Amino acid sequence: MKKLSPLFLSRPAFWAVLASIAFSLVLIGYESWARYAVINLTLEASLGQPLPAFDKNSPTGFEGGMRRVILPSVGADGYQWIMHTQKLLHDGGWRIRFTDQDNAPVGREIHWSHSFIWWLIGVGAVHSLMTGWPLPASVEAVSPYANTLILLLIVLTMPWVVWRKFGVVAACVFACSLSVIYLFYEIFIVGYPDHHGIAAASAMACSLFLAFAGGGWVKTPGKASPEGRVDYLAPEASARWWFIASAVSGGVSLWISAATAVPVFAGIGVAAGLCLFVMGPNDVRAVETCKPALWRVWGIAGACSSLFFYFLEYFPSHMGMRLEVNHPLYALAWLCGGELLCRFAQWRATGKAGGAQAFGVVVLCVIGLLALPTLIKLAPDRFFAVSDSFLWQLHRDHINEFKSIFRRVNDTSLEALIVILSIVPLVTVFMLRFLWLKEIGKSWKAMLAITLAPALVLTILGLFQVRWLAIADALWIAALPTWVACAVAVGSVRRFPLWQRAVVAIFFLLLLIQYPQNVVSSALDRIGKKPGIGPNEAYMMVVRDLAFFMRREAGDKEIVLLSGPTTTTWMMFFGGMKGIGTLYWENTEGLKSAAQLYAARSADEALELARKNRVTHIAIFSLDAFSSQYIRLIRGLPPGSEPTDAFAQSLLYSLAMPQWLTPMQYALPAQLKNEWIALAEVHPDQTPAEARLGFGRFYASRGNLRGARSEYEQAVALDPKLKDAHVELAGFMFLSGETMAARIHLGQGLEGRSNDEIAGACFAIAGHCQDAGRHAAAVEVLRRGIEAAPDAPSLRNLLAWILATSRDDDVRQPEEALILAATNVGFLGNPVFLNTLAAAQAATGSFVDAMDSAQRALDEARKSGEPEPVIRNFETRLKLYQSRQPMRE
Questions:
Q1: Mean pLDDT in runs of 10 for the chain (889 residues)?
Q2: pLDDT score for 229
Q3: Among residues 619, 616, 624, 615, which one has the least CA distance to residue 679?
Q4: Residues with Cβ < 8 Å from 763, sequence gap 6 or more?
Q5: Which pLDDT score, from 0 to 100, does residue 224 have?
Q6: Which of 79, 635, 817, 874 could covalently link to 800 via disulfide, CB atoms 3.0 to 4.6 Å apart?
Q7: Burial class of residue 618 (count of CB atoms within 10 Å of its CB; 0-12, 13-18, 19+)
Q8: What is the pLDDT of residue 111?
């Protein structure tokens, strides 16, 4: 029988691999288009507050330090990556180790890997060159698809490598797996800018490259594979390079996430040890030979890569004992682990254990391997911050990705649960079956075990914390082509009964059809429909709009926000503000500070804590209130308890707002009518009268006019010199027809104010009177304002409009309206002023002039991008004048 080529470099094989890559690209491309369409919709729509304009001098590239992209796939991490990247660009240099955006006012350290930050900067720089946008704004713009680009690079390159090493069938399975195994694909999807994708890909490469290297087995020099077998084993020199490539990939994984890498290394080490234990002495007559020194190479290369990335990240000024992230102790453990595997393999291959010197080396290696976990065990508070009991309980009980799969069953639909669990771990059954076949040599068993073990370890961890499942699936993607290659190489599938082969075929069919079927179903459902904004995106638009509102209200003043841990990050991102509690181990102190403020037992204690953290605003959202959870965590209460004596509970449910808080109103859109936001501004030194004034404005914004008036009256009684209270009360009296009393309060409120302040106050009162149909009162107040500021364009425009359009014959004065509008229209080139001029011309019977002015107003409104309702109003009024009818309201 003719020996098969190990490379399968034939034209049909090439097209098969290319077709598999194209399949994944089509699947990824459609999903990316659909998701990015939703992101674009949120960028094109607003809820009242306009999106921030470009500002090259701003650290974010947008006015006021605001940001605007909504990421539909994440809670908060993606926003943090963007903020860290933009801060690095603003501060200069090439690394960032500190942020003052949370844990206000102290700030906190940052220990996130710079790999993804540098990637965002690189992709953003390309976008900036192509568009001319400020680089920070470009970083934000590219962030939704930055991770997807990494996946595309993997899809376009890695299947060809698998083809050359393991053949066409393995390459096709691998190429399709990159897109159809959902939990792996999910960490690369559009809208998910995070480091998990790089961490998973590097872990996958670490395992797969060891399989390429034969798991420590190489070709025996001078020996050929039996006829009919495909020879996948590399010569020793080539295997050494694959071991080094695996170590470098593992070093990248360790650099990005030590928590991710360590279980992978543990699985590889255990599998290698077991394989070496059962292998027995080397047979020089066999085709395959174990090379123990390869594991030493792996340990040395891994230690070097770990140290390189550590120094790249921390040298020279941030080198400390932080064992939550990559550290030289990890390099030491890797070096010692590789040496132990090498010496164990030498003993099994030769049967010789060595002398006392060898025993001493082994002891030293065991000490080096155990140094890291020993330090963590002996002094967790000092060396391993994530072991903090408050932080650990918070993650375990209240963050979804830290919940067990058993707890998620009750919260997840059956269809979603099938996608989350996947059927990929079932490959364990097939791989274990292969491990018992005598026809499969030691090298294949080593390759199968080394790819199977870390995948199993991460899957088992995923049963207890679902955050491990995505990494587990990445490792299964490495195991699948190894198993397929083994089946093809040995021809062992033909040795199985027909029913077992049918099970294998069904397995692959289910593996390849599960997620694509969902995508096709979704695509068919979208036919003829425009992309829509879902409830999650709608809620995020509310958060963004509120952040814009607060930022613009505050101007250049610093905002420090107290909110739920997730919405704190959202508001920090959109509003360019600072926060306290965010869900990161580096911010443990900030989380505790926020919890202490929530759990304060009195308003005075809460005020003291608010002053300590310089809190300026409180915004607690119903979807992320986190009040009971914070209080239970900081007080050490059992789950399910509902404390009622805490500041947050009284604020949210008893509406017992202390004097030092001023409530603010923000109207939620109709589709979120069942949600709420508790919003207040902190004024530690305000007087009782000022507090009553704030409550009055709050009630007025909610339409509670009786409650508002009562608060204003109390404010005036408490402090007769509080001018704002007199003005607000005067407005309500004008509305209720108490003209004489209103004039008195208005006079007291305007006394001693600047002309601009008088104009602003009069405009606000007149606007309320106009809305209520109190045109006579509105005209009186406007004339008072014009006395102070004769050229104020807004006052003149509103007075002209009322005089031209009022249904009250005693109020309407078209000739005066025309004079006011004609002399006012030049200000600002505002289409609203042209619209008023048209109304005044129509009121005097000059309909031809009115039509001309109305058309100009419509053109200007379209040119300046006015909202669609404004455009429709202008169109309606133009049609009214074309029918020779004046405007009346």
A1: 46 90 93 90 84 93 94 81 95 92 93 95 96 96 95 96 91 92 90 93 96 88 54 84 96 94 94 82 66 94 96 90 92 95 84 74 92 90 86 83 70 62 74 74 87 92 86 93 83 62 72 72 69 82 92 91 93 95 92 94 93 93 87 87 84 80 80 79 90 83 79 88 87 85 87 87 86 88 88 88 90 90 71 89 90 88 78 88 88
A2: 46
A3: 619
A4: 782, 785, 792, 794, 795, 798
A5: 58
A6: 817
A7: buried
A8: 93
Beta strand 560-562 with 617-621: parallel, antiparallel or unpaired? parallel
Predicted pLDDT at 409 = 60
From the number of C-beta atoms within 10 Å of its C-beta (0-12, 13-18, 19+), residue 392 rates as middle
How far apart CA 51 and CA 141 sit, in angstroms, is 14
Tell me which amino acid residue 94 is.
Answer: W
- C-beta separation of 636 from 709 below 8 A: no
Cα(581)–Cα(398) distance, integer angstroms: 14
Helix and strand numbers (H, E) in the chain are: 37, 9
Contact yes or no for 806/775 (Cβ under 8 A): yes
- Write out the two tokens for 406: 């058993």
As given in the structure block, the two tokens for residue 19 are: 């077709």
Report the SS3 class of residue 559.
Answer: coil
Q: Region of 463 please: left (phi>0), alpha (psi -120 to 50) or beta.
A: alpha
Query: What string of DSSP letters covers 571-594?
Result: HHHHHT-EES--S-GGGHHHHHHH
SS3 of residue 663 by DSSP:
strand
Angle at 234 between CA 231 and CA 238, to 5 degrees: 160
SS (H, E, C) 384-446: CHHHCHHHHHHHHHHCHHHCCHHHHHHHCCHHHHHHHHCCHHHHHHHHHHHHCCCCCCHHHHH
pLDDT at 828: 53
Residue type, 210: L
Which pLDDT score is estimated for 697? 80
Matching residue, tokens 């995106």? 537
Question: Could you give phi then psi for residue 678, rounded to 5 degrees?
Answer: -90, 110
Q: Max Cα separation, the chain?
A: 115
Backbone φ and ψ for 288, nearest 5 degrees, come out as: -115, 145
Question: What was the pLDDT predicted at 223?
Answer: 62
Burial environment of residue 458 by CB neighbours within 10 A (0 to 12, 13 to 18, 19 or more): buried
Can you list the alpha helix ranges (DSSP code H) found in 315-327?
none
Those residues whose C-beta lies under 8 Å from the C-beta of residue 513, and which sit 6 or more positions away, are 180
As a whole number of Å, the end-to-end CA separation of the chain is 96
Cβ-defined contacts of 667-672 (< 8 Å, 24+):
667/701, 668/542, 669/47, 669/538, 669/542, 671/535, 671/538, 672/535, 672/538, 672/539, 672/542
**Of 21, 266, 278, 342, which Cα lies nearest the Cα of 152?**
21
Q: What's the angle, vertex CA 472, arms to CA 344 and CA 110, rounded to 5?
A: 95
Which residues sit opposite 569 in a β-bridge? none
d(CA 837, CA 853): 7
Q: Cβ(537)–Cβ(514) under 8 Å?
A: no
**What tokens does 866 get?**
């006015």
DSSP 171-215: HHHHHHHHHHSHHHHHTTSTT--STHHHHHHHHHHHHHHHHHTGG
Residue 193 phi/psi, 5° resolution? Answer: -80, 105
Taking phi first (over 0 means left), then psi (-120 to 50 degrees means alpha), and beta for anything else, what does residue 564 get? beta
Predicted local confidence at residue 420, as pLDDT: 65
CA dist., res. 604 & res. 664, Å (int): 21
- Please return the burial class of 739, using the count of CB atoms within 10 Å of its CB with bins 0-12, 13-18 and 19+: middle
The pLDDT value given to residue 305: 97
What pTM value is reported for the model? 0.85
Specify the pLDDT at position 392: 86
d(CA 411, CA 402): 14
